[in-house]
Amino acid sequence: MNAPSTLLDKLHQVSFATLGHLLEDGFVSAQVRSMLTGVKLVGKAVTLSVVNADAIAVNRALASLQDGDVLVIDMNGDQHHACVGTVTSCAARVRGARGIVVDGMVTDIVELREAGLPIFARGTSLLTTKLHGNAESRLNVPVQCGGVQVNPGDLVLGDDNGLLILPWQALEAVIDQALLSDRAEPALLRRLEQGEPIEAVLRVN
Q: How many whole angstroms separate alpha carbon 168 and alpha carbon 185?
């Protein structure tokens, strides 16, 4: 079952950091970070486990993408081979993908930033994957990304602060509370700016 469209609309509105006040699970390691600035990513996970730096597995995953998907790639500890670059990003974008997340490296960073598709990774590398066609790589299986287990269909939320990946039901349970918190924040800021005592504005015990 896919996430309701009303939930997706709300996730585009909410501050993801506010969700951090309400949730504890699903937060990807800060080592997997946005390679662009000013991004907000909401999409459904398509997962890929890459073995032996296999570029063909990535190409097959790209061909499977649909509108609204986010390709989440587990490089199985390979911190040397970049599996995403200019062509990969373009292929994902024309398929309607919302972004790509790699627990590993990417390349062509200048071109990736110019293209604008949200890309999250651990860093960059000149060494890239090869056209091996390794039979051990797997599409749409549970994978690991920055310490979080990601299942096909999970929702992927990302911005300049980090990544959160969870089943949509867990997000639906807190989204309304998070939106209320966001709407209350401007009034709290005004009270602080106007010199109201901190203990009168914020909880201190």
A: 25
Measured between alpha carbons, how far is 125 from 80 in angstroms, rounded to an integer?
7
Superfamily of domain 26-164 in the CATH hierarchy: Ribonuclease E inhibitor RraA/RraA-like (3.50.30.40)
Decide if 166 contacts 25 (C-beta within 8 A): yes
Please give the pLDDT value at position 122.
Answer: 98
Nearest to 125 by CA among 147, 100, 102, 104: 104
Contact call for residues 66 and 92 (beta carbons, < 8 A): no
- Helices and strands (H, E) in the chain, number of each type: 8, 12
pLDDT along the chain (205 residues), means of 10: 92 97 97 97 98 96 97 97 98 98 98 97 97 89 98 98 97 97 95 92 87
Q: How far apart (Å, rounded) are the C-alpha atoms in residues 71 and 39?
A: 16
Question: DSSP assignment of 134-171, as one string?
Answer: -TT-EESS-EEETTEEE-TT-EEEEETTEEEEE-HHHH
The CA distance from 89 to 171, in Å, is: 27
